Amino acid sequence: MIFESQLTELLHRRPVIMQFMRFACIGFLNTGLDFLVFNTISKALGIFEGLPLGVVTFFSFTMAVIQSYLWNRTWTFGSEEARLRTNAVRLIKVGTLGVIAIILAIGGSKFQLPWYYFLCLLAFYLTIETYLWRGFGFHLSDWNHESHSFMIFFIVTFIGLSINVTLVSLVSLNLHLFQNPDLDKNIAKVIATAVSLFWNFTGYKLIVFKK
């Protein structure tokens, strides 16, 4: 109990710690969605490298960005203040869903499974995510929408999108570690996602949701 009390006090004094942990878990969640959409479309259309793959990642990354805004605006940088144990459970749930989605997406790529495998995963993922969102008690109607804030968000995420698309296109053309194009394209995706996520957190924290 003493440790829990001290940890609660620390998180209260330094809210950036909890914000970062939430953002990290949401990052896994966003990456999971990104990878599932990315693989569903690329497999269905038979796209494995170059600019066409960059176009596919444009769409999948955009879906992840929209999701990112919803979760970060409501949870990471919102006014919600749950108890320590509640926060811990929520972090585990959100992070676990994202990690499982990523593992299953990359695993499906490794074994070159068909596009409908990824589509089924995507449907299951969205169902669980909706359950979590509602279970956390989040409602879009609670927002205080600000057009200025959203415009800044758009600019920051557009830069992140440009970074993501450019890196996927370049890395997929120049990095071939395996005799498996599905696996190589996902490695390119991992590198691009890591760089763009770092940019997004910095922009969200210091610019978009600055209080």
What is the radius of gyration computed over CA atoms, rounded to a whole number of angstroms?
Answer: 18 Å
Percent of residues in beta strands: under 5%
**What is the arithmetic mean of pLDDT?**
86
- Give the proportion of residues in helices: over 70%
User: How far do the termini sit from each other?
Assistant: 32 Å
Structural class call reads mainly alpha
Number of domains: 1
Instruction: Tell me, briefly, the overall form.
Output: globular
Distinct helical segment count:
7
The count of β-strands is 0
- What's the order of the H and E elements? HHHHHHH
State the low-pLDDT regions, or none: none
Biggest sheet record: none
Family: Belongs to the GtrA family.
Domain GtrA/DPMS transmembrane: 22-132
Subcellular location: Membrane
Pfam family, one: GtrA_DPMS_TM
Protein traits:
211 residues, mainly alpha, 82% helix, globular, GtrA_CellWall_Glycosyl
